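Q: What changes when adenosine-5'-diphosphate is included in the input?
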Amino acid sequence: MRILTGLQPSGKLHVGNYFGAMQPAVELQEKGEAFYFIADYHAMTSSSDAAALKQNCRELAIDFLACGLDPQRAVFFRQSAVPEVNELAWILSTACPMSLLNKCHSYKDKVAQGISPNHALFAYPVLMAADILLYDANLVPVGKDQKQHVEVTRDLAIKINQAHGEGTLVVPEPIIRDDTSIVMGLDGRKMSKSYNNTLPIFGDEKPLKKLIMRIITDSTPVEEPKSTDNSTILALYKLFADEPTFGRMIADHQQGGYGYGDLKKRLAEAYWDYFTDMRAKRQEILENTDYVDEVLQAGAQRAREEAEKVLGRVRRAVGLI
Ligand code: ADP
Ligand code: TRP
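A: The predicted holo structure follows.
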């Protein structure tokens, strides 16, 4: 069973990214042969800042390794280290009706956000299909926003198989994370860079704890019970505390006598403790700068072997060789 997913290098990793994407990927690496990559070609569809791209790729690699990606188990690489993906994307483009891409909501959403509507942004789902199909992936864990792209991938694989022979491409299945795994941001909305409500997982203690103190709450006085419905403090605390500790936090909300300041302080401590080991691992990686390059190089080599095999099969099927 091959499991594949890509993460865009788009800035500082936050708690939403960790619980929504990183942690599930780390768990899944035990369940099959994992291929995880940094989607740097995709990041170019919405930014042309070369220095930022380079820096973000490096940080994502470091963070992913610090969060538990095990390069002995998972093949970890940069998308652009396997340029064969572009050839497969081209071949898939020739089988992709315009109507299929016209239906994709992420293009429209991004244009609505103010990103300039270039060709790559429009063709993005075809490149994503190539990412998946190039490695014969069976399972693709993604957030709900990417579900449509995996459907496009399946459509294209089926079309190619119909035209050029069953077995030319492996038709993948998505694993879609449910809504309950959406992490709330400091203002109570979904945590997202675009809302500027994120809690980074790495950084210095003081500013991070300060951010937690900014969580928006109501003005219930200290002595009175605090609502446990739609509480951002509780939603975040649940991620970091074990069950009995979380139970005590609920009880302290319900009985009153604790101010929001106290409750936030408790959240800040739980959050800081939760990432202790990952911070230490990250520090270790930072002190050995060659390590990340070595991991990515070995991953790229392994990914490329697989890509050449699959691309050879496709090239033969479509008549290029
Ligand atoms: P952002 O919304 O901050 O720009 P991205 O879109 O770059 O985050 O998301 C990267 C990954 O993290 C995706 O797989 C996405 O589903 C996941 N993710 C982002 N925010 C959250 C969140 N608040 N809760 C759960 N998962 C999230
Ligand atoms: N488009 C995905 C995102 O923005 C990233 C991605 C690129 C991806 N290629 C992929 C995810 C292939 C899964 C499989 O989150």
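Observations recorded in class: Residues 8, 10, 16-17, 19-21, 143, 181-183, 190-194 surround adenosine-5'-diphosphate (ligand 1) (CB under 6 Å).
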